[in-house]
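User: I'm preparing a small set of examples for a lab meeting where we compare how different chains pack in three dimensions. I only have the primary sequence for this one, and I'd like the structure in C-alpha cell form so I can line it up with the others. Please keep the answer compact; I'll paste it straight into my notes.
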Amino acid sequence: MHFQWYPGHMTKARRMMQENIKLIDLIIELVDARIPLSSRNPDIDELGKNKARLILLNKADLAEDALNDEWISYFKEKGYSAVKVNSKKGGGIKSIQSVIQEACREKTERDRKRGILNRPVRAMVAGIPNVGKSTFINALAGKACAKTGNKPGVTKGKQWIRLNKNVELLDTPGILWPKFEDQEVGLKLAFIGSIKDEILQTEELAAELVKFMKSVYPGVLEEKYDILAVEDIYGCLRDIAESRHCLVRGSELDTGKAAAILLDDFRSGRLGRITLERP
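Assistant: Understood. Below is the C-alpha cell output for the 279-residue chain.
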C-alpha cells in the first residue's frame, strides 16, 4: 500500500503557521500516544526553531501506560517538556496551565527584566489531523470554543482563544507533510485515522493491523472476536466477518465490513490499550 494525503488546504495552513510563528512564545504539539513518533510532523520542528516546546501525548488512555511513561522520558531527554493527557475525558488537563508557565519561564523572566509584566503567554496548538487538538482546547478552556470531529480536516482556519489573563491559544488546522519518506509511518497514520479513510484500501489496511496484532499482541483478536487462532491473515478477517455476522447476499462473508469493524474497534480502544511503536 502507498500512503499519501496532502490536500491543498494543508499548504495554506502551513503558510499561515509560518506567518504567525513570530507572535508565538510556545508551540504545544499534540501527538497520538499510540504512535508518538510517527504522529509528529517534521515541519513543526522546522517552524518552531528557537521557540519553547511542549509535547502532549494525547489519547494516552488508548495506549499502554508503561509505554506512555517511556515516551515521556524519551521526549524529556530530547529537551522537550512532555505530558500525557486524555482530552476527551479530561485526564491530565488540570496540570497543563502550570506546565505552560513552566515551559515559558525563561521568556517570562526576560520580559520581567525588560519591564514587561503580565503579558499572556501565546501558544500555538499544532499537530497532524485527527490527533485531538480541538478537543484538547475545549477541555482546557472548559467550553466548546473549537470545532471538533473524529475525522481529519475539521479545523480549517486559525482562531485565537483567550484561556485567561495568562494564556492565549492559537488553534491551527491539522497538517501532514507533503511526502512520507517511510511508508511504515503512513501505515501507522492510516491505522489511527489521520489519513482520510476514503482514499485507503480498508481490507489491506485491516490485514496489516491483523499482522501487527498477531506479532505484538498475540491472542487479543481471538479473545475479542471469539475466533480460533489462524496463521492466515485474510483467514482471520474472514473469521471476524463470520463471528460478527458480516454477510452479503445472504451467506457470503463480507470481509470489507469486518475490516471496517476491526479498524473502528482499534481506534476507539475496544481492543484494549495498544501502542504501535516503542521508544
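A couple of notes for your slides: The radius of gyration is 20 Å. The mean pLDDT is 87.

User: Perfect, thanks.
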